[in-house]
């Protein structure tokens, strides 16, 4: 069975959920898929910057997020001898007009993001759904997915956005290698990969983790 969308987002972590919320706010019919059924209860990230706050503001949840976060005051790193290696006053408002260093509890912010997606018409996040295959013809990309009950189906779309984290299935299926620095910090890196609309050249961006592929 094939379902059709304008965009399919792979991965329901913070990057995929923000992408889905942005699509929802833009009135674009999209579906996100997330392999896990439950939200991760443990934090990976603990800190973000003003640019992230600006993105969260863009989907309408800036104030809600800030109410659950704490801007950092001062940062000092020291060695075992207690000598200061680096000290920096933080907690200032930066160029994005938000604090540049914000501490947060990731499961709480992830839950806010998911709630925003649920609230928006035209987008949905399907949990317990795993990308297992990705092909494209001259019109659309076709994502073969496996559901939690073992059934499989195809989600077809003009665009596919891969936000499936450091061990990205999308990267694997598209044959996109990790660069040396990305391999070194695989546990930390986010990946956004797009299969794109007609006429777009296949290019690597300078950020090294983004690649656009023409799709029809
Ligand atoms: C210990 C640690 C500390 C960190 N601290 C920070 C920090 O302080 N600040 C910061 O900005 N970042 C930090 N990071 C990095 C942080 O984890 C990422 O910034 C953030 O999680 C990236 O979000 P993401 O949505 O790209 O990926 P992820 O959070 O990894 O989400 C990817 C999602 O895709 C899903 N997925 C994977 N494969 C498939 C598939 N085939 N089908 C369907 N779904 C799939 C996964 O289940 C997952 O939910 C830290 C990471 C670690 C490990």
From TrEMBL:
Alphabetically ordered keywords of this record: Oxidoreductase
Organism of provenance: Phytohabitans rumicis
Superkingdom, natural source: Bacteria
An annotated Gene Ontology molecular function: FAD binding
Protein name: FAD-binding domain-containing protein
Alphabetical list of SUPFAM superfamilies matching this protein: FAD/NAD(P)-binding domain
Domain named FAD-binding: residues: 5-202
One Pfam family of this chain: FAD_binding_3
One GO term (biological process): 3-(3-hydroxy)phenylpropionate catabolic process
Matching InterPro entries: FAD-bd (IPR002938), FAD/NAD-bd_sf (IPR036188), PheA/TfdB_FAD_monoxygenase (IPR050631)
